[in-house]
Amino acid sequence: MTHSFAADHATPHSEKQQGIRVENQSEIRWGDPSEPSPRCRTERHPERRAERSAAGAALGSFGVVAVVGVFALLLHMLAQHSPRVGPGYAGWAQETADNPLTALRWFLGDMTEPLFYKSDLAALGLLAGAAAAWWVGRRGGRWAGTLSNNSGLWPWVLASASLSLMLSNLVFGWVLDDGWQPTFVPFVCVAPAMVFLYGAGWRTCITGAVLGAATTTPLALLFIHTVSEPLGLPPVVASVLAMSVGSAISFLIARRLPWLVLREAREARPATQAERPPSNPNRNVAADAAWAARRVLKDFTETHFFANELAGACLILAVAAAFVLNPGLPSYGTGLLPHILFAQALTSAIGVTLWRGWYRDGGWAATYASVVSVAPAAVLAYEGSWQGMVGGAVMGAVLAPPLARAISARLPVGFHPVIGNTAAMAISTAVALPVLRLLP
What we know:
The protein is mainly alpha-helical. It has helices spanning about 5-10, 10-20, 40-45, 55-80, 90-95, 100-110, 120-140, 155-170, 190-200, 200-230, 235-255, 265, 285-300, 310-325, 335-355, 375-380, 385-410, 420-435. Mean pLDDT is about 85; it is low at about 1-50 and about 270-280.
């Protein structure tokens, strides 16, 4: 859930065996297109560029935390006077079998479940924000930021991910009679990653959708009972572990399908050069702050392969509206959405500031990994306490990005870094939550 450093460690012999254009390897990643890989730096942009300043990164990222913190307090107060419009979370899963509208709402809710929101209104906000960013970008506007690596693949990413999610709900929806089930997992792993690896087209779209639904959802159902429950870990560990293992299996199968060809092997044109920071080592702190603030907002949709700040902002506003209308719906009806939002912004800000060096020369870091795993899981596990919010945010920001980087660096060609990123989520969550219990 982006950037693959495997290409940077590949030998010339292995590259020749794969018959892949080396200069385009930087396109296989899940991140900001304005942040290409180190390989891109050495081959197309050899000049060195200054690292983002610590002051600028901290100012921008923690500025977002402050805004989200105030916003979370406001949501908490407004929830006390909520009109309680619409159904709550209780009984939602069981009602999907008998009510098509409820099933559709569950399907939409699955789109935001990776962020622990589980809200159909939030999903509409996410899609509206991404569509607006796409519309603005198609007309040459830059204020809405980049979308899906500025690759032009967003419609196919959304189509494949949505189809995979629909298959997951159709095939495994019957288990919802027993309550919540991880039907959401295909939406943020195999299908969109397959589009990034193999490009646009219905063959890629359908293949990724089928492989994702066929591998990740059943593995998640299995791992909940064989990994999470026996070890006393939250279901998110099983879910992201299933994404990692299911993605590895899917990419292994994809390499043997004759109708799929890696984008690097068939595209002669280089990747579009995106906007880059100025090389002046005394770069304006305000510019670095603006970059960091946008980076934090991007992290809220990085797991969807959107990585867009407008989509992230719309998602936050939409889930906030859902919470005010009925606090008993978002985040599984726990009432902890404000706490989760604050922890997510905090863990992203810490990660962006701490690992800003990896963004140097257009690089990338998986600072979003804790946003969709450790931080919200800790909030739920410790019922919104400061121990859970701050402790989970700090530990997630420290553990998840370097783990993702290390694992992704060892992946072979044709295996998307979503494998390493989701594996890092599982490991860091499994480590962080027990450690937090030791805190006073």
